[in-house]
Amino acid sequence: MSGARKSKGVMVFVEFRRDHIRRGSIQLIGEGRRIADILGVELSGALLGHGVEEYAKEAIQYGLDKVHLVEHPILASYAARPYSKVMVELVEKYKPEIMLLAATKNGRELGGRFYVHLQTGLAADCTAFRVSEEKNLVMIRPAFGGKSLAHIMCKKTRPQMATARPNVFPEPERDPKRKGRIIKENIELGPEDVDAKMVQFITHMEDEATRLADADVIVAGGHGIRRADTFGTLQELADVLGGTVGGSRKVVDLRWLPKDRQVGQTGKTVRPNVYVAVGISGAVQHLAGMQESEKIVAINNDPEAEIFKISDFGIVGDLFEVVPEMIRQIRERRPAKEPI
Ligand SMILES: Cc1cc2nc3c(=O)[nH]c(=O)nc-3n(C[C@H](O)[C@H](O)[C@H](O)COP(=O)(O)OP(=O)(O)OC[C@H]3O[C@@H](n4cnc5c(N)ncnc54)[C@H](O)[C@@H]3O)c2cc1C
Fold first, then answer.
1. Which of 174, 193, 212 is the last residue of a domain?
2. pLDDT tens-digit profile of 281-327?
3. Residue 12 backbone phi and psi in degrees, to 5
4. What is the pTM of this model?
5. Is the distance from the beta carbon of residue 250 to the nearest atom of ligand 1 less than 6 Å?
6. Of 193, 217, 233, which residue constitutes the final position of a domain?
7. N or C: which end of the chain has fewer CB within 10 A?
8. CA separation for the pair 152, 126 (Å, rounded)
């Protein structure tokens, strides 16, 4: 869609899944709010589903000014064709200058589909946004294997579209008193819009991955752990801390850990309260996925390891001595498995 001058406002695709708004979308509402305030425009959301009105209110409480609510049985769970049809109609009707989606599997597919219909650009997997002096959105994402950051602008067409990685932006505070408008949209959908039918919803693999992305405490192992079975000890540490286990790409490539447990540029981006990096050197591609963690604890026998540069607490030592001692001391202080 061209015609930059006619477009106004920031719109976020509010991704809903079963019984919750996805965390990446909530984080984008916070970032969208920041961008909309800089531009002095409204922040709207597009919420698609069936029986989801209460979540429109929730999205407003996180910072939206208004929600375009599209409800239809066909939209009850995500499907590419009807969702992209609805999104194209909404964007053509309301002409936002910026359209943001979380870079979940669905968000990536949806964004990739409907930017083509709109004939505009899409910057995928962004990790930061700025607003330029000319009020264009600067969409920033890692390039060349994470060694540099590409700054992308879409000056001629609207909307400026981007997907952003979950967990790179903090979650905004929910304000139960915040009020906004819910606009019920009437978009016709019929059997011709259904290209796939859901037969069964199986979550076991995704649940594991989701837990990593949403975990409060992550104990991550790197190549320094030497053997796959050391993950047993790391799991013990995770258990006493009430957390879960992740790892670097090297341990995933060695098949010591499943791919959905990988943290980093080509894995998951995480933002836990505590990230314990055990035998991880701190390559840029790993840091890209965990450096926004609240507190970082690194255990490494090399005092020069890069990971120490971004750590809040560093232990220089042999992980095979340090980790069991940590488990022992934590158990001594907190005998029950109460999470920290
Ligand atoms: C395009 C691209 C994408 C990538 N994506 C990712 C990604 O998503 N995630 C990712 O993690 N990597 C990624 N990588 C790989 C990345 O560059 C590094 O190779 C990788 O992160 C290194 O893993 P590591 O820290 O486990 O291993 P190493 O770099 O081998 O580090 C092992 C560390 O363990 C320490 N150590 C050894 N023995 C002990 C001991 N007994 N006690 C304490 N410490 C010990 C060592 O001092 C060392 O610092 C990517 C690379 C490329 C090119």
1. 193
2. 999 999 999 999 999 999 999 999 999 999 999 999 999 999 999 99
3. -115, 135
4. 0.76
5. yes
6. 193
7. C
8. 10
